Structure formats: structure tokens, C-alpha cells
What does this fold into?
Amino acid sequence: MKQSQLFAKTKKETPKQAVAISHKYLIKGDFIEQSISGVYRFLPLGFLVLKKIEKIIREEMLNLGAQEVYLPAFQDKRLWEETKRWNTMDPPLFKLKDRHNKELALGSTHEEEIVDIVRKRINSYQDLPFSLFQIQNKFRNEMRATGGLLRTREFLMKDLYSFHTTKEDLLVFYEKVKKAYFKIFKRCGLKPVCVKASSGSIGGKISNEFMVISEAGEDKILLCKKCGFGANIEVTGKIKKCPQCKSVLELKNSVEVGHIFCLGTKYSKSMNVRYKDKDGKDKFVVMGCYGIGLPRLMAVIVEANHDEYGIMWPREVAPFQVHLLALEKNQKVYRKSRELYKKLSEMKIKVLYDDRKDKSIGEKFADCDLIGIPLRIVVSEKTLKKNSIEVKRRIEKKVKLIKLTQFNRYFRRLIQKC
It folds into this structure.
């Protein structure tokens, strides 16, 4: 992609309403913009990152053996009345009436929808276990939307639901999901901790959150360095000593990037989802659910991967792999830059080529640091006099000159590191 053709206009000033680092940089870099309070538009750069995150999550869900579905945002009031959540959800549902005066809700979660599908298709223990997931918009009627993408009213979410014959089978799958979540977050450049959590409006007796330590976080968690215990203070209160080893606990601000629940039979009982066991007896299906909000995950990636100049995207979620800068307004520089752009494209490397002729050298470097693509290649009169190009990883200060004759040999190795 030539940067002269990229639909993006970076900003020099920090938006007044932005407090969180991720909010500042995603707005300044023109990844996103606010539509109304708690609702954001994803522009081309932001959408590229969002799709990379979605790809990672989908791959790991499929690796678990889950099958993908797509469920409606409009949901029938009658389903929510079966679970008695129509008036008890927190935050409350967005409710509306259609032209036939039928009451609907915009889905903030999809337990009722998924259970309605499943109960029509389960008869025997032989139909279990299985898991279904979707990646779809959710609508949360938040009282206060803050921190840019950290707390919004409309957002893309991955929700996975699993169905089992026994609690023991659920717990085995629950642990597999934990491992899959850690893998997802590692691929996204994060190192969260898994802590005990409140189940809130979703329900279930066992619940865990994946938390990233961050000053931007509104959640407070207690951590034990000695034994690894961790819990949200919603569960424990502000206790001082670890309940497992009696060591002193540390209180940290954090942001939730994932939440998983052992639902048990909460929904199968309220919506009458049964199966016949080996002896022909009716039993309630046992359930789990597992969520990740993609825009929030995107924001937390920025919170954890930035410096004073801008974003430092991890390799797997970056909008492009390489940022190629042609510095001077010089025909030789532009000719060689175009050659490298073509060569990289032929190698199937995603490149943002800064071919803009109306920007100064300083502006090009500032935009490059702000946008945060993992690898920068600079072509200038100075480098060409040495028959070289300048290569720099975004996460490093060190700059390296590489001979043009050695480009092919060095490049693939460099790109794998970034």
C-alpha cells in the first residue's frame, strides 16, 4: 500500500478527551474515531489490526475443535424471560419495539440464543460434548463509556459456548480454553495473569478473568508472588494476606482481556435443555462460556506496547509488516524505493510505502513511529551513496545498514523477528 493512497490522516495534537495511552495513539494515528459516546469507527489502519486479532482468535478456537456460528443482534424478549434476565442484566439491555409492537433487545451476550439453538438438536449423551463460537457485535448499555476502546457500548466480541454431560468433562475443556487464551494473548504480545473473578450477570459458580497489569485499568486485583494466587477484589474484598500461603498480597490496577465461566446447569435448567444418559435417564446439559472483546484487546495491546513516540505493534497484529520510507524528493531515491516496494510485494510481505512528496523527513519519521509498524526501511541519498538501506526494528533504537546486494538474504530473517 502506498501511503499517499492510504485513507488516513495522522494528528499532531493529542485529543483533549483522550486520557488512556491507547486512546491517544489510536486517535492520533487515525486507527479509529469516535462516532457517539462509547461507539467507535474503525478506519483502514484500525480495521487491519482488528482483522489480525480476529484471525488469531479464530485459529485458536478452531484448534480447540469449536465450530463457528453467527447469531443475530436482535433477540426475542421471550428467550430472556425464560432465564429471568430481561430486567436483571447489568448493564441493562438496549430494548426496542418493532413496527408490530414486538419487544426486542440488542444482544449484550448470547447465552439465550445459543441455548435455544442447542435444545432443538440434543437428544442423547452421544450428541455431547461440543462447542460453538462466534465473532459478532455486542451492545452494552454502559452508564459510563471511558478510555476509548477500553470500555465501549458497541464492540466486536468472540464468545465460545461448550456443552457437556458432566461437570468433570466441562472442567477438562475449561482448562483447555485457559491454555488457548494464554496462547492467543501471547500471539498478541501480552502476558496476562489468570485470576478468580465474579460471575456477575452471566452466572456460574466458577469464573476466571485474564488480566493485564496496567495503570489504565479500572479493575483492581490481588496477586501473590509466592504461590501465584490471584483474584479480583470483587471476589475477595481487600484482604491483605494470600488465602493459600498467607504471604502479603500486592494490589494492582488491571484491564480484563478475557473472561471465562463454568455455567453448570444454570441455563439448561431455566431453558429446559436435557439429554438422555446411557441408562435412558433425562439429565440437564452442563455448560461453559468464554469471551474476548476484540477492540478492548486491541487497546490493551497498545497500552502494553508503546513508547513516548507511538505504538509498537507486535508482529502478528501489526497492520503492515514493513514501513518503507523514501526520504528525499530525489528521483534516484524514489526509483530505488519503488524497486524495493515491488520486490517486497513479490515476496508476499505487507508493506506500507511512504511515497508522499508533501511531507518532510521529520513528519515521515514521526508518522512511522506513531503508526508503529514492526520494521522500518529507509532509503535516502545517504544510504544509497553506501549502496545500502537503513533497517530498524520499532522496538529497538539500533539502526543497521544493509547492502542492497545482501537484501534478499537478510530480509526474511529480519522479518521473522519483527
